[in-house]
């Protein structure tokens, strides 16, 4: 991350890759580890319950994720973290979470882990979330703080980071 003078507002959070790749890499790694060291979340009747629960989580995550993206598109602000934010979005799903896109990716990942019955995907999730927070969310929050100052500080007081 480049350093800016205190009065200089960066043009974007300067994140050079799409954040969903964290979830893709973790999912692929979990599946590959699963092939060598199989561990399953459930079997029998528990598996029968977890399978539809996983699909339901993925469907809910899709709805929230699309809602979040459509909200950004409507106000014509940057969706990707290398693009500038033209305005602070604080309605729609952003009234409930400061990071509805990342929250929906997390819920979708959990749903896929349930569908695939993958312990390894679940083990890798906390690591993924720590990396997402450290490399993405912190940069985005620093950028939004420098770009929108008091408005963003007030938004952070009202709205939780995740859910």
**Number of extended strands:** 0
CA-CA gap between termini: 27 Å
What is the overall number of helices? 4
Unreliable residue stretches: 1-5
Tertiary shape: elongated
Largest sheet: none
Query: In which range does the helix fraction lie?
Result: 55-70%
Helix/strand-derived class? mainly alpha
The oligomerization state is single chain
Give the H and E element order. HHHH
The overall pLDDT average reads: 91
Layout of SSEs?
Blueprint: H1 20-36, H2 44-75, H3 100-116, H4 119-158
Description of the structure:
- By secondary structure, this protein is mainly alpha-helical.
- It has a domain at 45-158.
- Helices cover 65% and strands 0% of the residues.
- The radius of gyration is 18 Å and the shape is elongated.
- The two termini are 27 Å apart.
């Amino acid at each position: 991350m480049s350093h800016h003078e205190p009065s200089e507002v960066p043009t974007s959070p300067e994140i050079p890759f799409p954040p969903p790749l964290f979830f893709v890499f973790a999912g692929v790694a979990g599946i590959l580890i699963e092939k060598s060291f199989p561990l399953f979340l459930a079997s029998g009747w528990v598996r029968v319950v977890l399978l539809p629960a996983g699909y339901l989580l993925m469907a809910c995550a899709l709805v929230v994720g699309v809602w979040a993206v459509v909200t950004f598109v409507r106000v014509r602000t940057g969706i990707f973290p290398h693009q500038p934010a033209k305005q602070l979005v604080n309605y729609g799903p952003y009234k409930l979470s400061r990071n509805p896109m990342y929250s929906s990716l997390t819920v979708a990942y959990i749903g896929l882990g349930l569908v695939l019955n993958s312990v390894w995907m679940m083990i890798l999730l906390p690591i993924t979330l720590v990396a997402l927070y450290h490399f993405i969310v912190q940069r985005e929050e620093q950028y939004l703080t420098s770009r929108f100052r008091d408005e963003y500080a007030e938004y952070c007081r009202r709205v939780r980071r995740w859910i």
